[in-house]
Design brief:
- The structure is a single chain.
- Helices cover 14% and strands 30% of the residues.
- Helix 1 (11-22) links the parallel strand 1 (3-7) and strand 2 (27-32).
- With 210 residues, the protein is of the alpha/beta class.
- The protein binds acetyl coenzyme *A.
- This is Acetyltransferase.
- Belongs to the transferase hexapeptide repeat family.
Length: 210
């Protein structure tokens, strides 16, 4: 079983550690975290060091693959870490075994898909995307790098979502629309037309608030 290290020992990092361990996909060896003391223990897993120590630890075979446990509040940082380590350190792709992922899907590096999500035919998920529990991505839809999908999001067919977007819980995106980079969608929002300007959108139908 591959040894997995997680960047960030906060709530999301701990959830990834739990899911990857209980689903028997990885041996989670610990976290890298700039804000928690080295060798301390978080949710039963060791803090392996700061982010500056990742490459050295990989050279010393402390872990085989890495994944980022930094969530929707820090998508710029999530992107920065990914771009710094990409091609130097192998990124894991973790898809919980309870998910349905059609064989025609293309899934990038560093992608994490939590339990009960469905990725239908020809879905494309680019690098470093996080998909939380129970989300549905219908056929031919595409999610660009570093985007965060909250629980129970429903994305219809032929939808395109940009980079560093944060799609709120239980939101709905109808078919054949596009969303540009850096869009935040509030919980329960219904998006019925393309979003061409970055910013925060809420409501049914969705409206720009800032
Ligand atoms: C496993 C996990 O937990 S993953 C995380 C899942 N969490 C989410 O998806 C959270 C999504 N967050 C939200 O929906 C938040 O309400 C946000 C980000 C959209 C806005 O938060 P804030 O910046 O605090 O905005 P604020 O609460 O001041 O609201 C601004 C206005 O938008 C309205 N509004 C805020 N959120 C929503 C919403 N989801 N739907 C409809 N209207 C909303 C408010 O009523 C308010 O309207 P008003 O100006 O007429 O009074």
């Amino acid at each position: 079983m591959k040894k997995l290290a997680i960047i960030g020992s906060g709530d999301l990092g701990q959830q990834i550690a739990y899911q990857a361990t209980t689903d028997n996909q990885f041996n989670v060896v610990g976290f890298f975290d700039d804000f928690t003391e080295k060798d301390s223990v978080v949710s039963g897993k060791k803090i392996l060091g700061k982010l500056s120590e990742v490459q050295n630890a990989f050279s010393n075979k402390i872990f085989d693959e890495i994944i980022i446990g930094i969530g929707y509040k820090h998508l710029d940082f999530r992107e920065k870490i990914f771009n710094t380590l990409n091609k130097k350190i192998p990124f894991a792709t973790f898809i919980h075994s309870s998910c349905f992922v059609d064989a025609s899907c293309k899934i990038g590096n560093g992608v994490c898909v939590f339990p009960g999500s469905v990725l239908d035919q020809k879905v494309i998920i680019k690098d470093n995307v996080f998909i939380n529990v129970g989300s549905i991505i219908a056929h031919d839809s595409k999610i660009e790098n570093h985007t965060f999908i909250s629980p129970s999001v429903a994305i219809a067919g032929f939808v395109s979502i940009g980079k560093r977007c944060n799609i709120g819980i239980n939101s709905t995106l109808i078919d054949n629309i596009s969303i540009v980079d850096d869009v935040q969608i509030g919980g329960g929002t219904v998006v019925v037309k393309s979003i061409e300007k970055s910013g925060l959108y809420v409501g049914n139908p969705s409206r720009f608030i800032r």
